[in-house]
Amino acid sequence: MISLQNQNGLDRMSKTLSKALQLLRFFTEETPYWRLDKISEASDLPKATVYRLMKTLEEEGFIQKVSFYQNGVFIDGEMYQLGTRLIELGHMVSSQLEIRGLALPHMRKLQQEFGESVQLIIMDQDEAIYIEKVESDKPVRLYTKIGRRAPLYAGACPRTLLSFLPDHEIQRILQQEKEKKKYASQTMIDDEVIMEKVKETRDRGYSYSQSELEEGTASVGTPIFDRFGEIAAGISVAGFASTVTPEQAERYATPMWEICETLSKQLGFSEPYPYGSKITKMGE
């Protein structure tokens, strides 16, 4: 139970956040620049309060000070505009909406063909996040929540995202989490073992996992690339280990590659999709 003191603290934090977000709303195409005193007047908030809020927003990259000439007068760092962090967030939201819309019809096709759950995953802040799903129509099926986060080292599709990052990025992410959590009996927590799986995924074009994020489950993940040739997302077919077997993973890979190739091209990937000519058997 939250104490009254803690509840009051949460209420104050919520009000502060609300005020900061209200300030961001003043920045529009018609009014892209604001002085501290003017935004204080427009928001009807004390100048000291606005200063504190704007300082925090600036530190987090949501706004930034600008210097420019206006009507022959040099304005030196007295104006604010929206910051680059909002550009990053906007791009991420735009990319998510685009790829979800593109992928969903193909995900439904995979679900109908294999009868298993199909998931779409992207990377966000060094984690995998599930942004779309088509559930299996089996009476007993695997359930995944949209918005769920998972470490990049565990599970077929998260590891697919990890595998197609540059080597230095993989090392940075693995070293970031020194003591990795073991989610289920087969979760790999040793960096050398994870790197072996990364190489395996790159070599054969898909990743397979069993009992890594949840006991008794299994999945197959394949990569989607963007116009820069970088990993954009991954699609996975997931179910129980009794049905999504290593042998089934071999069968699933080719139609999954075909869909990932189509989606990669729609995202602007101009190189030949690197997988699909043949399937390397598990363990080879």
TrEMBL record:
User: Signal peptide position in this chain?
Assistant: none
Question: Is this entry keyworded S-adenosyl-L-methionine?
Answer: no
Gene Ontology BP term (one)? negative regulation of DNA-templated transcription
Q: Which UniProt keywords apply?
A: DNA-binding, Transcription, Transcription regulation
Q: Where is the IclR-ED domain?
A: 85-269
Instruction: Give the Gene Ontology MF terms in alphabetical order.
Output: DNA binding; DNA-binding transcription factor activity
InterPro entries under this entry?
A: GAF-like_dom_sf (IPR029016), HTH_MetabolicPath_Reg (IPR050707), Tscrpt_reg_IclR_C (IPR014757), Tscrpt_reg_IclR_N (IPR005471), WH-like_DNA-bd_sf (IPR036388), WH_DNA-bd_sf (IPR036390)
Domain (HTH iclR-type) ranges: 14-84
UniProt-listed SMART domains: HTH_ICLR
Q: Which Pfam families match?
A: HTH_IclR (PF09339), IclR_C (PF01614)
The name this protein carries in UniProt is IclR family transcriptional regulator
This chain's source organism reads: Halobacillus trueperi
